[in-house]
Sequence to fold (114 residues):
Amino acid sequence: MPAVIGSDEVFSWAAWVSLSRNDFARVMDFWDAPGRETEKPYFGWLSTDLFLCSPSTINLKTHVHTRPIGQRPFIELEPTDRPLAVEQRTGVTMERVREIAEAVLHHPTNSESK
Fold:
């Protein structure tokens, strides 16, 4: 997971990934199985547009790593020069975390309806 540079903290996005029908079935077969984290990573396509990342994050290639029961899978982006993939590999600054938090808090989907 990407580290916050100069900190012991990590930063993560909640995101959706599409898997093939067979891989999805396998994930479901092992969802409650102890030791599921030993499964090989699954190929997937990032299906969430992280609006603060440019260019669009839709359909980036990923590897989905199953983790122990109770933990969400870890989504590893293909190692490219796209900004999100670089941030995942090298970490993010606390300034970038603040920028993301402010934008998410003030995004129109998080505003009260009038």
Notes: The two ends are 38 Å apart (CA to CA). The chain has one domain: 17-110. The first helix runs from residue 21 to 30. The chain has a mean pLDDT of 89.
